[in-house]
Amino acid sequence: MGKKTRDGKTDMAELLILVGTESGNAEMVAEKLRDDLGLVGYQVEIKTDFSDVERVFVDRELVLVCCATRGSGDLPDNILPLKMHLDAVPQYLGHIRYGVIALGDQSYDETFCGGGKLLDETLADLGATRIGERLEIDACSEQAPDEVALAWCRDWVTQL
Question: What is the pLDDT of residue 95?
Fold first, then answer.
């Protein structure tokens, strides 16, 4: 899970969860993942405020995107500043390994999970390496999106 320090102890693996949320579903999922991953030794930080976009990826290696979709495949307002910053000031993110949990409404067929897909594409374009497959959840019909995400995440961490 973590790296060995000089004194032989194991550092806890650090994971940053970037949350794009509109109605709170993505944040609820992220909180469930934080609680579960904390039990197995991860230090998890959830980020929902992107007012300091320049520092999001500083000293980070492992990132999980948990993003809802609004409108016609758009990003939630809270995470839009991050996407705009990455577009305006591209930075090489080759040191980042990441996963994506995308939430959407399947009745919007062509834009289903568009927010998560957009961030996935952006991170890949900047050199980050996605670990595993992107999870796409129909948050409108799935009664427990947090449970679906938790099962996926337990598998995802075994691939790290």
Answer: 97
